[in-house]
Amino acid sequence: MLKDLSGRAGFQPTIPQASAPKHRSIAFVELVTTAALALSTAVAVTAVSIGIARADVAGTVVNGDGTAFAVALFIGLLLSGMGGLTAIMAADHTRHD
């Protein structure tokens, strides 16, 4: 009634597989990442440019309704100022380390 379990205890040793996949060099990965970022930026710039062209903001401002343009300009300047302040603070932080 008892089965012979003498050869089945513990873990089996792993069987060596074929050679592991070769790792790509870091420079190649960085090159592909940079190319993808450049392509994504180009697509985003194109989309924003088309949106600006279709919005006809300049025509609206000329016709006398400048409220929307003033609000957009204020928000743009606010975000630019925040970005500049962040850059100044980051540059100051790196000098002290």
The low-confidence runs, each spanning 5 or more residues with pLDDT under 50, are: none
What is the mean pLDDT?
78
What does the radius of gyration come to?
30 Å
Per DSSP, the total helix count is 3
- The N- and C-terminal alpha carbons lie at a distance of 74 Å
Helix content: 55-70%
Largest sheet: none
How many E-type strands? 0
Structural class: mainly alpha
Determine the strand fraction and express it as a percent band: under 5%
One letter per element, helices H and strands E, the order comes to HHH
Q: Which features would summarize this protein structure in a list?
A:
97 residues, mainly alpha, 3 helices, 0% strand
